[in-house]
Amino acid sequence: MSKQAERADPGCCAPLAVRPMAVEQAAEVAPMFKALGDPVRLRLMSMIASVPEMCVCDLTPAFELSGPTISHHLRVLREAGLVDSERRGTWVWYRVRPAAFRQLGALLALPASVPAGT
Amino acid sequence: MSKQAERADPGCCAPLAVRPMAVEQAAEVAPMFKALGDPVRLRLMSMIASVPEMCVCDLTPAFELSGPTISHHLRVLREAGLVDSERRGTWVWYRVRPAAFRQLGALLALPASVPAGT
Asked: Which residues form the HTH arsR-type domain (chains A, B) (predicted)?
């Protein structure tokens, strides 16, 4: 199993709010949150996640940034295990890794007993 | 309404996978993910979220880090709108901001039609 696939195991993570997180799990998950902690990467992520797959040739024109800068951000997302990529001819295509998304979402789940609060 | 409360509005955010995220929303949410993108802060967050509230005097001994370092990480979490703090006498107490958690969790939700994948 690749390192990315291990990171994306959706069964590994009890919600943050259930019990204190183990050191190893925190080290494994933090890079995924860190990858989302940038506005450009969040927008790239949402563009990719909104469709089955997306060509880098359609991502780059949406930003006022150079191709290499977009490629850098896409590499961060891929290395964090949040997207997969595949080269076909000239272009690279990206798609979301659903298990990674679900793992992060599960971590952020709060028990229903927690009031809405602020 | 405070800046933190605005950020924690749970009604503001369609899931990432529904439509591309607006520039303004990405700029607003990225700091919350960035705050979680550190193993120590993730562990602090899970310790705080596991109980109704927690004293900094119980958080610090759980880490092999100095008091000022722990305080720095707690400040990042607070400034990102993920926790609230309250000083009572000598100690500061922290509690999770449920709306902020729910906002991030909602962003990461995937449509049920998305296959489990890897």
From this structure: 21-116
